[in-house]
Structures are given as structure tokens and as C-alpha cells.
Design brief:
Shape: globular
CATH topology of the largest domain: Rossmann fold
Order of helices and strands: HEHHEHEHHEEEHEHEEH
Largest sheet: 7 strands, mixed
Bound molecules: nicotinamide-adenine-dinucleotide
Radius of gyration: 20 Å
Number of helices: 9
Number of strands: 9
Number of domains: 2
Helix content: 40-55%
């Protein structure tokens, strides 16, 4: 399937993981093909929204047939870059860093987490599953020597920019940042901030919104 030369909007990009997940569930349930209408109903989108989204990448469906679920999921996985592996490290081996390291799913999906880093001498030298925690001083050398592409930040917000700078100086091109801070990145580096608290506060807004009955 050929990619269009049109720049894809971030709104579409942000929906792609959801397509990927829903299609994965359909495959698990033995569904082999699906119409845009059916897929839209499942995902809470209109059929025309689905067609528009997928047309950004050349369109995948066939008139009167719908989408081949397996092919579409594979193709969306390729568009998302999930057909390759990524060498990753976590900086900050506290509660969150350890929880991420303990999640098997990322490794299965091609995120090869090989090391964690921390400043705390009580943590340095320990392992979380088979992943060793190193001294933060070794981060730069490790990133360079192990061709690390993706850095995961799980340190307090005050430390996050410094950690990101070391990552970028040593060639990391993608940062998954869990610290609640606006980390500045260089032009050729991409960052995704995960704002867990903001999501929670949105929930409390909805709980307290006067028009809503819960
Ligand atoms: N735990 C959660 O559910 C959660 C939710 C939302 C956001 N966050 C954010 O994620 C980050 C980590 O949270 P946590 O609960 O794991 O905290 P934590 O205190 O358990 O862990 C932070 C770890 O970072 C290490 N650290 C501090 N400075 C460092 C540095 N310069 N280099 C390397 N390591 C350093 C500490 O020694 C500690 O082990 C915080 O910014 C927090 O606000 C956490």
C-alpha cells in the first residue's frame, strides 16, 4: 500500500494505535473482514471518519468487501513502526520505572529494554527481571555503545531535563517522558509526554461536572 504524500494530521496519528488495538482484538476473535460501518460502531467513530483516516495512507478497503482485518492490522502496525525493534533504556528505577520494566508486553512488541539507570546507590546493581540497574554516570557511554534509540524518563520532574539532555547528547532520538514537566528537545528528537495526572484530573472534572449524572 502506497503512502500518500499528504502530511497526516496528529489527530489521525493518535487514532492509529486505537485501530491497531481494535483490529488485534478482532483477529483474536476470529473476525477476518469488517466494513468501515462495523469498525466505526465498535470504535465510536463514523464510517466516513474511518475511511478518511485510512485514506491518508492510501486506503485499504475494497468496495463491497470492507477491510481484511489481518492485513489492515499488519499495515497499521507497519505505519506505526511496530514491525521493527527498538533498543530502550529507563532512567529512574523507582516505582514507575520498575513497573514499566516489569511489564512483559513491551518486550513482546519489540521494545528491547536492556538497562535502567538511577542515582540511588541502594538500587544500583539490582535487577528488575533480567534488567540491570546501572549508575546514572554510565548512561552516556551505555547509550552510545548499545545503539539505544529510545529513552524512558521516570525521574522526578526537576531532574527530567538533565536526563533528557544526556540522552540526546549521546544519540537518543525518541523520549517517552513520564515526568510532569515540559522537557525541551532538539529539532531531530521526538518526545511523547505521558500525563497520567492530567488524565486523572479530567476524570475528576467529569465526575463533578454539574450536567452529568453518574
Ligand atoms: N508512579 C506513578 O504512578 C506516576 C504517575 C504519574 C507520574 N509519575 C512521574 O514519574 C516520575 C517517577 O515517579 P515514581 O513514582 O517512580 O518516583 P520514585 O521516587 O519512586 O522514583 C524516581 C527515581 O528516580 C531516581 N532519580 C532521581 N534523580 C535521578 C537522576 N538525575 N538520574 C537518575 N535517576 C534519578 C530516584 O533515585 C528514584 O529511584 C515522577 O516524575 C513522577 O511525577 C509517576
Amino acid at each position: 500500500m502506497q503512502k500518500n504524500s499528504v502530511k497526516v494530521s496528529m489527530a489521525v496519528v493518535r487514532r492509529l494505535p486505537k485501530y491497531y488495538r481494535y483490529l488485534g482484538d478482532l483477529i483474536q476473535n476470529g473476525v477476518m473482514r469488517i466494513s468501515s460501518k462495523e469498525l466505526g460502531k465498535l470504535m465510536g467513530l463514523t464510517a466516513s471518519q474511518i475511511r478518511q483516516d485510512l485514506n491518508c495512507f492510501g486506503g485499504f478497503g475494497q468496495q463491497g468487501y470492507g477491510y481484511n482485518v489481518e492485513e489492515l492490522q499488519k499495515e497499521i502496525g507497519r505505519i506505526l513502526g511496530l514491525n521493527q525493534t527498538y533498543n530502550c533504556v529507563i532512567v529512574g528505577a523507582g516505582n514507575l520505572g520498575q513497573a514499566i520494566a516489569n511489564y512483559e508486553g513491551f518486550r513482546r512488541e519489540g521494545f528491547a529494554l536492556s538497562a535502567m539507570f538511577d542515582v540511588n546507590p541502594r538500587l544500583i546493581g539490582n535487577t528488575i527481571r533480567d534488567i540491570k540497574i546501572y549508575d546514572i554516570q554510565d548512561l552516556g557511554t551505555y547509550v552510545l555503545e548499545n545503539d539505544i534509540q529510545l529513552g524512558i524518563i521516570c525521574v522526578p520532574k526537576e531532574q527530567s531535563q538533565g536526563v533528557a539532555d544526556t540522552m540526546m547528547e549521546n544519540g537518543i532520538k525518541a523520549i517517552w517522558n513520564f515526568a510532569p514537566a515540559d522537557v525541551q528537545v532538539r529539532d531531530n528528537v521526538v518526545i511523547e509526554n505521558v500525563a497520567i495526572s492530567e488524565s486523572l484530573y479530567t476524570l475528576t472534572y467529569l465526575m463533578n461536572e454539574p450536567q452529568l449524572e453518574i
